[in-house]
Amino acid sequence: MTYRDDTNKTTADATDNTSGDATDKTIAGAAALSICESLLIALNDLKIIEDKEARAILQDAADSHRNAMPGSSKPDEHRAVAALIDRIVAGKNSVRKF
User: Fold this and answer.
1) I need a surface site. Which of 6, 16, 38, 84 has the fewest CB within 10 A?
2) Cβ–Cβ contacts within 10 Å for residue 91, how many?
3) How far is CA 53 from CA 34, 36, 49, 85, 98, in A?
4) Domain boundaries in the chain?
5) CB 57 within 8 A of CB 48
6) Can you tell me whether residue 23 is helix, strand or coil?
7) Whole-angstrom Cα distance, residue 27 to residue 77?
8) pTM for this one?
């Protein structure tokens, strides 16, 4: 199944495996990261959480991936995710530094 996005380009639906599972997972991961980052920024802007709490949430997520590495069949993926989150915390891959 396909749909047209805002640019009127035809795009494969997530249920259509013709684009490949790896691509679908990459797109889903990027979307999830953007959504979560936007939520943390909004919560911070609204003074619901402080910078240090947002940083702690991100650090917990990175630690979860580091802790999952030993028993995982794909430890390199967990290592890469933890490294990406660490870059976000350091302000090197984010809209703004927490």
Assistant:
1) 6
2) 11
3) 18, 14, 6, 15, 9
4) 2-89
5) no
6) helix
7) 15
8) 0.69
